[in-house]
Amino acid sequence: MSEPAETPGRKAISVIIVTRDRADVLPRCLESIAGQQPAPDEVVIVRGNEQSFPDQLREQFKQLPIRVVQCVEPNISLARNIGIDHASGEVVVFIDDDAIARPNWIGAFVDAFETNTHAWIAGGTVLDARQASMPPEFLCGLVHPSGRQIEVVAGDGAPAPRGYIPSVKGCSFALRLDRLPSEFRFDPFFRFAFDETDLVLTIHEAGGGVEHVPESVVEHLHAPGAYRADGPMDRDWLTEFASHTRFMRKHTHGAGRLMG
Length: 260
Prior knowledge:
Elements: E1 13-19, H1 26-34, E2 42-47, H2 55-60, E3 66-70, H3 76-86, E4 91-95, E5 99-101, H4 105-115, E6 119-128, E7 136-138, E8 142-143, E9 149-150, E10 165-166, E11 172-176, H5 195-205, E12 209-220, H6 237-251
Parallel strand pairs: 1-2, 1-4, 2-3, 6-12
Antiparallel strand pairs: 4-11, 5-12, 6-7, 6-11, 8-9, 8-10
């Protein structure tokens, strides 16, 4: 595939979708990408195997500038890094394969990066599509270096609790690659938990900005995956606990930070 043609006056945009064994829900995600304005200059599909993005899906969405790469190992951080390595855009927007983007999803991220020239990473609003009312599951969320998170924060202007910083949700966030140092990538140790949160803390510690973009909205379907099914006992808790431990070791820098 040729390099994406950037629209004059704006940065090139790449959408990255990591997908594994979810060919049943992926079309709904791609349909929502096809309706975006501005349209992405490319869509990088990082598939876990050939069945995750079969040829008929490529034909079905031939209107999208799709580039397909592969990550055999079930590791979300590694897959995202592979996506970044193959992306041509200066703005890279991530969405999960079981999420549906509302029409201004990309546009709100682009506007936010233009407004806040200090922002390296931005996160949008995530709605829980399992419930008819679609309540927010992530809205202007915060994270503490201990790994504690507040995922829904009321927009009343109250200061964040001590030690907490703005965070993002993994199923909908964006990076400005032309601002992000090239060595700042996802840590492959985080196979599925704390992956984007680790990058948020790394960016914050380096002086980069983390921006909330509540106008950028996705609906999260919560499809079962390699590490998560419907019930709490269906999660890979060993991997999640190991990830939490590494996260604290990297970012607390002393027991005093744990107190908040």
